[in-house]
Design goal:
With 325 residues, this protein is α+β, with helices and mostly antiparallel strands. The chain is built from eleven helices and seven strands. It has helices at residues 19-27, 42-50, 56-63, 93-96, 120-130, 140-153, 155-173, 179-211, 222-284, 293-296, 300-321, and strands spanning 2-8, 12-15, 32-38, 70-73, 78-87, 97-106, 110-115.
Length: 325
């Protein structure tokens, strides 16, 4: 299933092309053709192979999911694998960020995009083309730039939301951290790693497009692709900074938990140390011997209790002066 768009200086804009119109557009150097494919089938594969002379490896990459972005140069087109980020309404960040693969084939006068799931920035570009926006009139390379630029624009609010979550986690860490805080830290760390794996390689791919001599990208368009590369680098720096904050937060969490444990152990140690002389006194007078004069004394019991009280007060004052309390 695909959508097709065509611009020709003579006939103007047209969409929903027939197979014959697509064949004619490919051979017309003055035309600009855009085909957006979703859920590729056998008929689409025949179209790519017969009309656009796609290499079998390219068709295979279109069908099979890819883990990393890449760019490959063929005789009649340029194959590019990129990724788009989208946010779902879920509250948990792990399920909020979704990565969609976007495959692009750029020819001299055509652009083919393929994706397994709907991509909102791509839908925006198609709506602009349907309104006869100039983006399709400036050539296939500038059309590719518009698609990639729309995709990277969708990164910024997601990265900003991620950065805000990192700041909230940092504030929570020093207020009242618990087991949920540690889980948040690990989730954010995994998300930062996934974002870094997604954004970093794409920056390298776009940088390669601007530095290499590709026949299908005009020299005047290089400045626009450099702008995309700069945006990727900036986003990668933001994610890198967030990752450093998360790493520091993990270390700080360990320190906070360790300090809490030390405080607890110190309190228990003070209680145990205070109880030691009291336990000793109680043990001595708890022995069942007959010749213990203090047991017969009328003031023996109050005297022992008062002595225990004085010992307790003395030890607490001593601990306080030593700043152990």
């Amino acid at each position: 299933m695909y959508e097709s768009f065509l611009y020709n200086p003579d006939s103007g804009f047209k969409s929903d092309l027939t197979l014959q119109e697509i064949k004619n557009a490919v051979t017309d150097s003055r035309s600009v053709l855009w085909i957006d494919m979703l859920d590729i089938d056998d008929a689409d594969i025949d179209l790519l192979s017969s009309v656009f002379s796609m290499h079998p490896l390219t068709v295979e990459d279109l069908i099979m999911p890819n883990a990393r972005p890449k760019v490959e140069k063929f005789s009649n087109y340029l194959f590019l694998i990129m990724f788009s980020l989208e946010a779902s309404p879920d509250k948990q960040l792990r399920s909020k960020i979704k990565v969609n693969e976007l495959d692009c084939c750029l020819g001299r006068n055509f652009l083919i995009t393929y994706h397994n799931n709907p991509i909102n920035p791509l839908t925006t570009c198609k709506d602009r083309v349907k309104k006869q926006s100039p983006i399709i009139m400036q050539g296939a390379d500038m059309l590719l730039y518009s698609v990639l630029d729309a995709c990277i624009d969708s990164y910024f609010p997601i990265i900003q939301a991620f950065d805000d979550l990192v700041d909230e986690m940092s504030d929570e860490l020093f207020k009242d951290p618990d087991q949920k805080t540690l889980q948040k830290i690990y989730n954010l760390k995994n998300d930062a790693m996934n974002l870094r794996r997604t954004i970093g390689p794409q920056s390298d791919v776009i940088s390669l497009l601007t530095r290499s001599d590709f026949d299908f990208i005009s020299p005047s368009s290089n400045a626009y692709f450099r702008n995309i590369c700069d945006n990727f680098i900036r986003l990668n720096d933001v994610v890198g900074t967030s990752r450093d904050i998360i790493t520091g937060a993990m270390e700080a969490h360990v320190s906070v938990v360790s300090n809490k444990l030390n405080e607890i152990m110190k309190t228990l140690t003070v209680i145990a140390t205070t109880m030691m002389p009291l336990t000793l006194i109680a043990s001595i007078y708890g022995m069942n011997f007959r010749n213990m004069p203090e047991l017969e004394s009328r003031l023996g019991y109050p005297a022992v209790i008062f002595a225990m009280f004085l010992i307790t007060v003395f030890m607490l004052i001593y601990f306080k002066r030593k700043k152990w309390l």
